Amino acid sequence: MKRKLSFLLLYGSLVLFGGLGALLLIFGEKAPHASLAENRMLAGFPAFSWATVKDGSFMLGLEDYLSDAVPDREVFVAGADGIMDRLSLHREAETAADAEAELAAQLAAFAQENQTQDDQQEMAAFRATPSPVPTPAATPEPTPDDQSTDAAPEADPTPLPEKDLSGIPTCYFTMTQADGFVNKVYTFSPENIRRAVRMLNAYRAALPEDGHVFFAQPPFPGLAFQLQDGTCTGWGGDLEDTINEYSNDGVYMVSVQKVLEQHLLDGEYLYFKTDHHWTPRAACYTLNAILAAHGIDPKPYDSYAFHVNRSFYGSASLGNPNIRNGMKPDTLEVLVPDTPVKGYRVFWDRSEVDAPLINNNFGNYMVFLGGTQGPWRRFETGVDMDRSCLLIGDSFSNCFVPFLVPYYGTVHSCDVRPGNFDEVNIRWSISEYIRENGIDDVYIVYSTANGVNTVHIMENLLRYL
Amino acid sequence: MVFSGLTFLLLFLPTLLILYFLSRDLRWRNGVLVVFSLVFYAWGEPVMVLLLLATTLFNYLVALAMDRAAGPRGKKLWLILAVAGSLAGLLYFKYTGFFLSNLSKLLGVEIAFTAPRLPIGISFYTFQILTYTVDVYRGKTSVQKNFVRLLLYVSCFPQLIAGPIVQYGDVAAALEERSTTADDFIDGMRRFLLGLGKKVILANICGSILLECLPDGAAPGSVVGAWVSAIVYSLHLYFDFSAYSDMAIGLGRILGFTYKENFNYPYFSVSPTDLWRRWHISLGSFFREYVYFPLGGSRKGKARYYLNLLIVWALTGLWHGAAWNYVLWGLYWYVLQIAHKSVEKPWARMPLFLQWLFNFVLTIIGMMVFYYNDQSALLVHVAAMFGGGVGWMDEGILSVLRQYALFLPIACVGAAPIVPRLKKLAENRPWLTLLGTVFAVAVGLLSLLFLIRQSYNPFIYFRF
Question: Among A171, A283, A290, B204, which one has the highest count of C-beta atoms within 10 angstroms of its own C-beta?
Fold first, then answer.
């Protein structure tokens, strides 16, 4: 009896596999479609021809299709994620609530164990609910040889009057398919847009009168490739125009889609194939579009000198040489600055270590800045300029930083994602850092995965200000 | 195609089994299996399947000619032709680029050569077909006159692209007569599902942890970091490869073939010699039977014995890949085997735990030799394992240990010989066997869930 049960169970699992396969082949969604939950396009049924069979793209496409066409895929993904969470297999806090809870616990422990009563009050202020107007945050711990604190202006950034944000509409990131259908890939709710506008206004208020806040949200490669493989003929959206309309003067969000669209359609190499980042060329085009929009004559990409690495394998190869089988390497163009740039990593105790802008010890994307290293980075560009800028961004911004060199005397950077800003030891706010270092412009570059719809990052940007 | 892909699980396997078991006649079953095996191979290598067919046909014809040849001299000539012809393909696709690039460096001249794409599993099927031809020459097996049967032996999909290396003699009888009982189906399916879980859950997660330990090829930041990353990589490699063998053995069982075990809990071995009786057993058997013994083994004096071992280990290293780290890895094991032989008696007198511990440390270092393409990075890592230039602990690895505090012990238990003990316990306890089935089905479904979440799952040993 028990043997029969064993047989039936195993036979049943095989029938389940086969049944699911047959269902997917017959009833699965054959056209590519967007998943808002996963922020990506789900695969459609691959084109079948001798050419696609010969180059293997049909086989790879079928594998993607079977995975993506599963009905209620989000439920399966959530189920797998739930199991991984139970086994603590998710690396970072992935929801805003998790991040908040983690941060609150760290701050509480920090306050109880290490700080004086005054410090605890400051930390309490720091923990306060973010408001549209920047809140004075933790005061830097003065050190005997620290002159910069005294030199910093005493007044808090004066908030500028805010426009009426109640009319902000829902916005979309769109992809125009080959048949003309406009697919709404991402939806940006009025609430998320309001949060982003308030954050950008707050940064603008923290800057000098002639300062600017520039915001860019680069899309991920999966979408860009659809412009190059003929699936889509264009991309766009109304988020950038809406943010520019509702934010204060001095705030500008560039439409990365508009900047890159024609270049992608022309087949330019703007995203890596083995890595999830954009190429330096795409970063340069985006910066140049920002500068051109503000009356600055930008330096064309091809006028820079580059060191070229033609054997770069990126994150899609998982960094493990054992599973690069069959993947062609990417080409990585690494900018060679015209001036001798000195780079430093700056810690909360104001100590510094050398950390170059271009770290040639790495043969991959980490060549830019040697990867994200918190809490702060500073680059003395060697360019005779008074202006300084601060770039806040995720890893997409790392290859953006070198292109800022010709335009600023000093470039600073940081990343407010959990784990990159060392929240436990935090000593001063971003607005204080801006004042102390005489920063004129702020660039915020977060990819779509960490952008306007990523609530905890938008909140962190405001909270740490 | 890979066993841990949805195409295989949802489409290929169910369709094959339906058609296979609907065919009552063995000739039809063999036909179905050959067609599906060629589709399985062509799925990843649509053009290179022709090379597989050509290699098989070549050996088929040569073996027939060898069988008809009068006298040992004629047979030997045919054998030389078969070995040279079979190895020519392997040498061209796998080693020409490596040889020419080194020659180019040595001579200081540029030699233009574009290395061809390596056909998947070429090392495995070349060795398999050679066992047939050599065994026919030795008279250990009779010549196979039916080409479809020989093609089935070479191309049979469970072991086609990542082993185990099945010697012709092990399946010759099954090619002509075999059946599948209910017990075969139960055991085979259970083994397959557990292997699937081993790959999709244990191996893949170990791979992710390794990336966190050594992000983008960075050097370890502390002694603990160096050891943890080395152990995680060792577990990753073991789970990945042994999972494939488990699935191959399980599928073979369902189809009526009995393949020999390829792994026997190698991380619980107590000496380098013991390790190689437990790790990739089929490769060790091949080199012993078809290289070491023909060279004279240990019967021709000490110097020749050391030379024979050196040849075997250099070839073992090179078999894994055309790169210096694999040669170094082979030589590392050669030195360890020789060293172990010279201290065999005092080694055996040590407490068993110490024997295991020393061997484990040596094994882990060996895995690092295998991992690093860059020898200077290898030296940095090994130095870090013993405190060279790093502190005891770094924040990154502490965070990894905290994060995977639950998973890492589970993975270590997964590499321990628990299943054989449970099997023994389950003898005469049918409810325990049923429980094992329920567990295997649960693992299979969990694997399916994980596969839907993330679908790119290549096996490390494919490239060999």
Answer: A283
